[in-house]
Description:
The chain is mainly α and about 170 residues long. It has helices spanning about 1-85, 90-125, 135-145, 160-165. It is about 85% helix and about 0% strand.
Amino acid sequence: MTDLVMKIIMQATDKASSAFERVRHAASGLTGNLSGLQKELSGLDKAQRLIVQRNQLDAQMQKTSRAILENRREVKALRDEIAKSGVPTKAQAAKLAELAQQSDKLKDAQSKSSDKLSELNSKLKTYGITARDAAGAQAQLNKKPLWIGCAKHRKPSAKQRNFQAT
């Protein structure tokens, strides 16, 4: 009698432990998917911040370009004025030197911004974003799905395929 009771208890334990093993295996798979999704989401968040930085830098570069153009116009106007009179006055010479110094600063700022933009573009390329304009980069980021464990992108199970076939 005790052997029969022991046998029943052992069979019940085996059935329960196999169910627990399936649950443990499923949970570890879900944990892996969840950590993968978290990493991918973190990467997309970093890419979004890089796009924002890139947009700000692009706006700053446009502002600097406009300032460079304005500086060139002022220099041209001053040189035309000097050419009319033949000899520059002290004020004109000082203004010309000031404009040249300002031009150098603007060109240096533009160069640094250009280097930073190249750096940001290479960082964005690591996230698969290659667009050169703000709208294109944002569109590329928006199109990136979260692949791991996403129901939209998983293969359908046999049960789902059979249901869809009918």
